[in-house]
From TrEMBL:
Protein name: dTDP-4-dehydrorhamnose reductase
Protein family according to the UniProt entry: Belongs to the dTDP-4-dehydrorhamnose reductase family.
CDD domains for the chain: dTDP_HR_like_SDR_e
All residue ranges annotated as the RmlD-like substrate binding domain in the record: 32-320
PANTHER family: DTDP-4-DEHYDRORHAMNOSE REDUCTASE, METHIONINE ADENOSYLTRANSFERASE 2 SUBUNIT BETA
Annotated organism of origin: Limibacillus halophilus
Catalytic reaction(s) noted: dTDP-beta-L-rhamnose + NADP(+) = dTDP-4-dehydro-beta-L-rhamnose + NADPH + H(+)
Amino acid sequence: MSRTIGGGEEFVTGVLRIPHGKGCPAVSERPKILVLGVQGQLASALRPLLAGQSDRRAIFLGRPELDVADSVRLRAEILAHSPAVIVNATAYTAVDRAESEPAAAYAVNRDAVAVMGETAERLGAAVVHVSTDYVFDGRATRPYRESDITNPQGVYGASKLAGEEALAASCARHVILRTAWLYGASGSNFLRTMLRLANERDSLAVVDDQQGCPTAVRELAAAIGIIIERIIGQDAAFGLYHFCGAGGPVTWFDFASEIFCQTAGYGLPTPRLERTTTAAFGAPAPRPAYSLLDCRRIESVFGVTRNDWREALATVLAELAAAQAGPATGLDISKETLG
Ligand SMILES: NC(=O)C1=CN([C@@H]2O[C@H](COP(=O)(O)OP(=O)(O)OC[C@H]3O[C@@H](n4cnc5c(N)ncnc54)[C@H](OP(=O)(O)O)[C@@H]3O)[C@@H](O)[C@H]2O)C=CC1
Ligand SMILES: Cc1cn([C@H]2C[C@H](O)[C@@H](COP(=O)(O)OP(=O)(O)O[C@H]3O[C@@H](C)C(=O)[C@@H](O)[C@H]3O)O2)c(=O)[nH]c1=O
């Protein structure tokens, strides 16, 4: 099976082969980066980033061709590709659904990560893994540091913490990046949910008692790109890092307000926003009331810079507008495009 997805890259039975230019090292000599995950927010943001590196080979493997919960196949695929670096961009991210599907959440968020770690250790490969602010209980009064005690409140956060622990136990060289409130121009995220709901309703109630900071997925991908380079250059400090947008804390209500403030500039209708509470909203999964991440460690060790979340949002909206340019507004937020 062969089909083309975005930017002319060829997608062959689940393997995305990144084209390369002249004068590059032979294909077999280039360090291979195996990205697990194809369609998700992070995998989609990593694709153009890794495509720009002519001296690396990047392979994307994910559903439907590879189910990472199939541990036998996952192990076999990693061994067959024998990468220098594995980036795990798969996860079970349905926070509310995880409460009633814990086995499915743990299969992807813990067990698959354990297999990635064990297999990487056998190969001498490094693993870059992504985790979440939802490993914390939200009772802090200052940004969470990497050394702070975890205490997840829901199944999703608990399964992600179990994945962190499984990777650490594997003894593979690894970097775990905890991030928060990820969003981008594509995929399933709060920004796109807000734009879709604004198409359907005149008013929206949004919780104003959970504090954190939105993170543009393209910025997380850029940080991962820097970390991959340092790993390949044998210059990486492995371990646990926090990474989220700068300028927080804000609430989901603040995020929604800023979204509609900025999209008004594109001539889009602005729904009336009402503040609500987590209790009144009544989502099935508990979420931390405060989950701002202290990101000084990744800034100092890897030189990663972070943008103010409002500026990052403006960039993402411009990207969305460019990708979906409509003649009238420049930003097409029809139900069809937002899914
Ligand atoms: N989204 C967020 O707000 C946040 C995310 N994170 C973490 O960041 C990382 C990236 O998240 P993000 O890109 O947003 O997540 P997405 O939900 O956008 O993508 C996850 C991807 O994993 C794939 N996947 C799930 N189960 C399997 C499986 N069994 N086999 C193969 N692939 C599978 C999904 O495939 P399919 O498309 O087929 O479902 C999907 O493409 C995750 O580790 C997540 O926990 C951390 C903080 C915030
Ligand atoms: C759609 C909607 C949500 N909300 C609330 C529910 C929830 O408390 C908050 C965020 O809702 P969402 O369901 O979009 O986001 P949620 O699934 O909680 O997002 C989380 O995803 C996982 C994967 C993470 O790792 C976290 O960092 C975080 O980004 O906003 C409203 O108040 N009004 C609304 O109309």
